[in-house]
Write a structure and sequence with these properties.
This protein has a single domain, classed as Transmembrane di-heme cytochromes, Chain C (Fumarate Reductase Cytochrome B subunit, Up-down Bundle), CATH 1.20.950.20. By secondary structure, it is mainly α. It starts with a helix and ends in a 7-residue tail after the last helix.
């Protein structure tokens, strides 16, 4: 990888992906709301979907939360409680377990979509493509685990976290990644590409899942019987009982 390509991928490309991710999702919601769905194929074959979907979603949600917290939490915040090396080993063990669950579930979903003629006939090309990209990304993530175990001091994790926090604070430092092994870099680039592809696939339904959290904070809905509505209407000011 040349220096120019390296700097582009880890300095400019992240912002391109984030811009398309946010603006593309907003544009799709505004213009094509009828396509904003997960396109479930449960009616065609429910058994394998139940197992595959549950394993995949449990694993991917844990990985998403773990990557977000692990990369974006400043080191000084957790340093009094756990060292960088210990944190990295926790990430390897927990991430490896979640990754294994996700791998089994995603493989089942991909096999189901490719092997069943009815499901394959009703699938969009983007449905299969995004599953393949997710599968490749998951495999790359599992490949990084032996490299992480080899660097038990947590040095690589600190470098990756520093880069991610630099992206968020608009201070990207691609040079810091110069010594990082290729599986990590490939995993990062493909992960950013998933954000780029997000608005054009069924992954947009993730936004709807996050939006349901708002229901926890909605006020209670007042529901009255028909009899109570009639009594309330008759006793309003200006009307005789």
């Amino acid at each position: 990888m040349t220096r120019a390509v390296h700097d582009f991928l880890f300095t400019v490309y992240p912002y391109i992906c984030l811009a398309v991710f946010l603006l593309g999702s907003l544009a799709r919601f505004d213009r094509d709301q009828y396509t904003w769905k997960s396109d479930s194929s449960q009616l065609l074959r429910a058994g394998q979907l139940r197992w595959g979907s549950n394993l995949f979603h449990v694993g991917i949600l844990f990985l998403l939360f773990g990557h977000t917290v692990g990369l974006l939490t400043p080191h000084w915040l957790y340093e009094p409680f756990i060292g960088a090396g210990q944190k990295q080993m926790v990430a390897v063990v927990s991430g490896g377990a979640a990754g294994a669950l996700c791998f089994v579930g995603l493989t089942m979903l991909l096999h189901r979509r490719l092997s069943d003629p009815r499901i394959r006939a009703t699938s969009h090309r983007t449905d299969v493509a995004i599953l393949v990209v997710l599968w490749a990304q998951l495999v790359l993530g599992l490949v990084t685990l032996p490299f992480s175990v080899h660097h038990r001091d947590g040095g690589t994790m600190m470098i990756l976290a520093g880069w991610a926090q630099g992206i968020v604070t608009f201070r990207p430092d691609a040079a810091a990644l110069a010594g990082v092994e290729w599986p990590f870099k490939t995993h990062m680039v493909l992960g950013m590409t998933l954000f780029l592809l997000f608005p054009f696939t069924r992954l947009v339904h993730v936004w709807s899942g996050l939006a349901t959290v708002g229901y926890l904070f909605r006020p209670y809905q007042v529901v009255r019987s028909r009899r109570m509505n009639i009594v309330a209407a008759r006793t309003r000011p200006g009307r005789s009982a």
